[in-house]
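Section: Multi-chain targets

For targets with more than one molecule, the full set of components is provided together so that the structure can be written out for the assembly as a whole rather than chain by chain. Components appear in the order listed by the source. The example entry contains two components.
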Amino acid sequence: MDAEDLIERIAAFPSWNYRFDLGEGISTPVASAWRVRRQELRRRYFFEPLLALTGGTLAGRRVLDLGCNAGFWSLQAIEAGAEFVLGVDGARSAIEQAELVFEAKGVSRERYSFEAVNIFDWQPAERFDLVLCLGLLDVVAKPLAVFELIAASGAELVVIDTGISRARGELFEVGRLNEPRNAVEHELVLVPTRPAVTALAKRFGLGTVALAHEFDADELGVDDYAAGRRLAFICSSGPSLEGLAAAPEPAQNAWAGALQGASRSVRRRFRSAAR
Amino acid sequence: MSGPSDRVEQQRRYFFEPLLALSGGTLRGRRVLDAGCGEGTWTLQALEAGADFVLGLDTDGRAVELARERLAAAAVDPARYEIRREDVTAAPIEGGYEVALSVAFMERSGKPVELFELLARAGSRLVVIDTALSGAPSSFFELAMEPAGAVPSDGVALLPSREAIVELAAEFDYDCVPLAHAMGDRAGVGDYAAQRRVAFICASEAPLDALEWEEPPPVTPWWRALLDPSSRGWQVPA
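Its structure, encoded as tokens over all components, is:
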């Protein structure tokens, strides 16, 4: 594939979510500059801690990228030394973008595969060591099925990056996709709270750390993280997560806490009076 | 005296009779899907109401045995029903069931969306969903977990709030009404009386205007929420 050919094939796609530098000054066009900044900040936020956990490399690991889009994170995994990456996504055009990127990058064909499938009609046929579940959980309505897929992959490490509901408790908030055309199956989605992700992961034998971050609320592109509407989690049934810094729990109203304690004793008194 | 039969009688009046009324007073000529049939209580009710055929599905092997025994004891023509032990929401069904029941199933399933996909696959146009509810405000599913079974997803439930059911039904083009009940006697139906359990009728064609809506519980006054923050929240059903 020569440069002209590559430029033509890149331009054939109506839009790209990620910028890839494909050498010789050729890159994929993204709609806004902040997207480029966002992908770099996200890489630092959850991909670097992941690598720190695996000793700086993914060498020897097989990676499953659920909802891989144009393969940006699959490529990160390959560049971090992963032995093999399987990317799956419901959107055929995204898979075609990923194929193009990997071809242009000259990644060896034996090291990757991409499939355009509805993940909920699909089962991993092989075992994996690491699952990337990035930007998926909050755009689908089947959280339990996602965790069943993760379990079926046999992976001991999982990275989950997702929009979260700020409601309190182990809840999934019913939401609607902003861009219905991105719907995997339904426009209706179930957005988890942080405790819901942690509890569900625990059920599947995975310890979880919600990663700490210092995103700037004023920076375009990462305002969702800064506002507590998005978080990344690293889940593990193998490597210890002790070294990872956890995001602080959202601040509780101190007054509410004190009153709750008081009200408990009041309720107890009411109850004994009723007897 | 109160007992299980009283509860069933109250439930009959609460959601089964409205279902029959919407179906023209009888289930004659209808094929019925009982998604999460448990011990077959409503499979039998549907057969007694004249259904041509009822397919009962449940994941619980013991319940399926009991359902089969109950139907055999009732001497219903075995050609009129089938009870299958199956992963309910994954059942390979393609059309043929205009009427569906799902009583006390959603609260023990972690797959509410998959349940509606099943109803859509089954071609159901008239559906009763009776379920325990989360008291979560507005539209939520609450994670409720019992000890794991053979696989981690066994015993994981997503307990819906009432708004969540209505919204989910709308996503699948059903009109949905949380049924008002007039259970004068609370014996055995305290969960309904306290609105911790509600039955919904969902219909894709029949007009539901005639049905009376269950009004949501009153909103907690702000001063009470301030004194007792837990009152803003909700009780996870025991």
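The longest strand of chain B covers residues 126-132.
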